[in-house]
Amino acid sequence: MTDVITFTGRTPIKQLLAAVAPLTELTVKGWARTVRRGKDVAFIALNDGSCCATLQIVLDPKLPNYEEVSRLGTGACVAVTGALVASPAAGQQWELQATLVAILGTTDEDYPLQKKRHSFEFMREIAHLRPRANAFGAVFRIRSALAFAVHQFFREHGFMYVQTPIITASDCEGAGEMFRVTTLDAEQPPRVAGQIDYRRDFFAERTGLTVSGQLEGELFATAFSDIYTFGPTFRAENSNTSRHAAEFWMIEPEMAFADLAADCQLAEAFLRYLVTFALNECSEDLAFCNERIETGLLAKLEALAQATFETISYTEAVKLLEKADRPFEFPVVWGRDLQSEHERYLTEEVFNGPLFVTDYPQEIKAFYMRRNDDDRTVAAMDLLVPRVGELIGGSQREERLDVLDERMRTCGIDPAPLNWYRDIRRWGGCPHAGFGLGFERLLMYVTGMENIRDVIPFPRTPGNARF
Ligand code: 4AD
Ligand code: MG
């Protein structure tokens, strides 16, 4: 690790644990994981979040506040000055011989985290201490590193970062799952002819939280060629599953001059890059996840970094599912959407690796996807991965205005509010394609966490927005 310059006069513990020689006069600050008092010495296992490991602090009874410090409880916050010396104890190279300990925050008796392992569900109930648990420390450090990797990938590949609005009037996916944004009086909204009069609302029309930045992204792609968005999206779908959150982050690249094949190539390169980045930059945290969260995680990620991604059409997928020698809860019928059990069967049991499924029936996909020459399917792709199922959803976009208009009519979408979107097709339209990668789904895949709530710092799901 290169030396980190902090603004608060502390040396990160991660940096100290990687030291190559003893050091004098340095200060660490952090939270006690444990405090052990022996006969004429006491120890604090100190963690500051810079890494999973703790630094052993050795307390000499000659310290002026030895009595107080050696009786601190788990969770207490201290600043320790001292010398980094070789540790005689097994399993650790260094320890810090304290010369000065300042107590910054004591803890009440009822600190809820015990030394034993707690369930992830229990931890969700104490969101203020959850990030101090090892597993969540690992997950959130990986989350931070991968957010950075997203930007780095696109910067290296010449994509422009565009911030699309969070409040919007358009339901991009057309699934009617938008959270309403309004300043109207909920008790007594203004009405005309019995209907709520949104012209008197803040934006003078019905608005909500965005479900996707894609439509705006398409506009920017027809000016900057290759763009991406990375931001929060919101869906009021009332599905309380382990893979759906009401608020989640999505990365949506959009490329002008691209067809579905180019879109799949980008998705594959992107995922490979992110996984490789995690393997290189988060090895310690991934080792922890491999041991405590998903057995075989590292082997899976290393395999993905090398794997060829298979591609099959939706129609081929349906044939494989019909041939499956096991029952499914939901029947497999051409024209119906694949359920998560179908997706997982394909990626886990048939292909045992990442799988693109392409060319879905147009009826089950959003209005903006490009119609294929067979007039029944669209140039769509989903990338399925083991354990998570759908990680990426994307498509080539319908660039032919007449076809788009016809599709919007069939879907019952009023074209007028989307004229700005339709107009891309009138003034220098071009073939273009893009996809959305659910950032939390990626984190589930990379960390092995099985519940999406456990990769989100403050999850929002039906019935839960407490912390
Ligand atoms: O397949 P989706 O709905 O596609 C779109 O939103 C397109 N506008 C993307 C595009 O082409 N630009 O969502 C994309 C991805 C899914 O594959 C999934 O990973 C994730 O977003 N996702 C969710 N993640 C967590 N909670 C939810 N409720 C999610 N819904 C979708
Ligand atoms: Mg999808």
**Uncertain ranges:** none
Architecture (CATH level 2) name of the largest domain: 2-Layer Sandwich
What is the CATH topology descriptor of the largest domain? BirA Bifunctional Protein, domain 2
Would you tell me the overall average pLDDT? Answer: 95
Distance between the termini: 33 Å
Helix count equals 13
Q: Can you tell me the number of structural domains?
A: 2
Q: If you compute it from the alpha carbons, what radius of gyration comes out, rounded to the nearest whole angstrom?
A: 27 Å
Percent in helix:
25-40%
**Portion in strands:** 15-25%
* Overall CATH class of the largest domain: Alpha Beta
From the spread of the alpha carbons, the general shape counts as elongated
Find the structural class using helix and strand composition. alpha+beta
**Extended strand count:** 18
Strand numbers in spatial order across the main sheet: 6-12-13-18-17-16-15-14
Characterise the protein shown here.
The structure is a single chain. With about 475 residues, the chain is α+β, with helices and mostly antiparallel strands. It has 2 domains: about 15-105, OB fold (Dihydrolipoamide Acetyltransferase, E2P); about 130-175 and about 210-455, BirA Bifunctional Protein, domain 2 (2-Layer Sandwich). It is built from 13 helices and 18 strands. The protein has helices spanning about 15, 65-70, 120-125, 135-155, 215-225, 260-280, 285-290, 295-305, 315-325, 340-350, 400-410, 420, 440-445, and strands at about 25-35, 40-45, 55-60, 75-85, 95-105, 160, 165-170, 180, 190, 195, 205-210, 225-235, 245-255, 310-315, 355-360, 375-385, 390-395, 430-440. A hairpin with a 2-residue loop joins strand 9 (about 190) and strand 10 (about 195). The longest helix has 23 residues, at about 135-155. It is elongated. The relative contact order is 0.11. The structure holds 4-amino-1,4-dioxobutan-2-aminium adenosine-5'-monophosphate and magnesium ion (MG). 4-amino-1,4-dioxobutan-2-aminium adenosine-5'-monophosphate (4AD) binds near residues 212, 235, 252 and 441.
